[in-house]
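tool=predict chain=A
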Amino acid sequence: MNYKQRLNLIFYRFRYKFQEWKLKLSQRYEDLNKKGRERLTIMVIPHTDHRTINFIISYKTISIVIAILVTLLVISAVNVLSHSGSIHQLTELNLTNKDFIRQSSKMKDEVASLHETIQYYYERISNLYIKLGGDPSRVSKGVGGQAPQFASLQGAPQTDITSESFRIKEDIHNLKLSSELSDEIIKLIKKRKSIIKNTPSIWPTKGYVLFPYGKYISPITGKEEYNRGLDIGSFPGAEVQATAPGLVFDTGYSPATGYYVKLAHRFGWKTIYSNLDRIRVKKNEKISKGDIVGYVGKTAENPIYHLHYEVHVGTQALNPFSFLNQIQE
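tool=predict ok
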């Protein structure tokens, strides 16, 4: 048997089976149709003299009614189950909503507490920045505090969420600004520390104020003179120390001032130590604060042992007493 014959055989077998199924279905349909045409008589017999009532109903009608009733029951059951499921979901949603409201209220309190802490921190940082000589224009309130008013001017409805949102934005802005100001404060402190470190701020020798800065009556000439520095009375040979770190830019001797040492410091400061008995440092020598530069002496014009001490900024002479023990590192 070749391939074509085999295909024909399979085709006829399927055709035979199809005809067989079709005949069975047709026979089944005829039986059902015949059964449906059969009728059922329902008699209603009253217990009175009224006549008997007969109802003739076919099996087909009964089947349709039963099918309709079953369909309605199924639909009703589905609706009941769906309604029960909806009620259950609503109950869960209500519970979830209550929990959300409780959590939201707790979070709102925490945000308010955090806002107060940030505001306190921001104000302290801002005040410290301004006291250290910072730029006041850099200290400004966050935009979050102005936005709600702007929103109300635009006619936008204000809600708790909107208010909290702008408050959080303000806190973020203030935290960022506080961080920047903190960095600036550190720079200012370092700069101020450097200035203080290089500012003449200690007594150059141990003693007492003999003649102050400014106008005074000289006991030698008996005339009013102007003192550009400070004369400190001391004992012979007392150590004279540098009042700030710097560089020796000049040393020498004159009959009027005796031996003298001139120091140059950072930020334009200069100090002069004169009326010395002898000098301990050399020109162009770097010295530190507190190093010995010479020793107290006297001159022919002024026989009192003392140190003449001057402080200059550029070419301007300042009152040295204003710096002595007034600046702390």
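Confidence is low (pLDDT under 50) at residues 142-158. The longest helix spans residues 59-131.
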